[in-house]
Amino acid sequence: MSILKIARMGNPVLRAKARQLDPAEIRQPAFQKLIDDMIETMNEYRGIGLAAPQVHEQVRLVVVGLQHDDDDDDESQTKIVPLINPEVTPVGSDIVEGWEGCLSVPEVRGRVPRAAAIRVQALDRRGKRIEIALEGFPARVTQHETDHLDGILFIDRMRSLDSLTYLDEYARFWAKD
Ligand code: ZN
Fold first, then answer.
1. Which residues belong to the active site?
2. Which residues line ion ligand 1, judged by CB < 5 Å?
3. C-alpha of residue 65 to centroid of ligand 1, in Å
4. Residue 3 in contact with residue 46, Cβ under 8 Å?
5. Could you tell me the domains of the chain?
6. CA nearest to 101, candidates 46, 61, 149
7. How far apart are CA 95 and CA 115, in angstroms?
8. What global pTM score does this model have?
9. CA of 35 relative to ligand 1 center, distance in Å
10. How far apart are CA 140 and CA 96, in angstroms?
11. pLDDT in tens, 38-95
């Protein structure tokens, strides 16, 4: 596995629309390696999600860390799930604002409105159809990552740039939110 180079804001690859993958392509070793490399890259940079265009690949693949908040006292566990050709559908009409950052827009955070609950249809890494229901932070992460496949960055979704904040200032003034 290898750690991939992350494209930063200004690189046109982040503004292009990524193409759909077909099942035959998903089974190729090179594509399976891309999935593993993206997971390794995301962990290396302590991200909670990563989209293929962020590593210069214009295909509809994201990896997202989905937390399982169990009712017992165990720490919530993060399971990293690859989603191929993901389609996000909002469930209900609740919109919530929350903080987001992005490995391609380093050192800043901002408040972004997102659907509170979503349904995601996608293919898994074996090309099998899956459907998952998400709410809260995992729903936010998944919407952020799938936006990357259409060339959309989180700053585009902000209602106002008033909350765009450097990480130092975030820690000083906003972290208690
Ligand atoms: Zn991002």
1. 145
2. 102
3. 13
4. no
5. 12-174 (3.90.45.10)
6. 46
7. 5
8. 0.93
9. 16
10. 9
11. 999 999 999 999 999 999 999 999 999 987 655 555 556 789 999 999 999 999 999 9
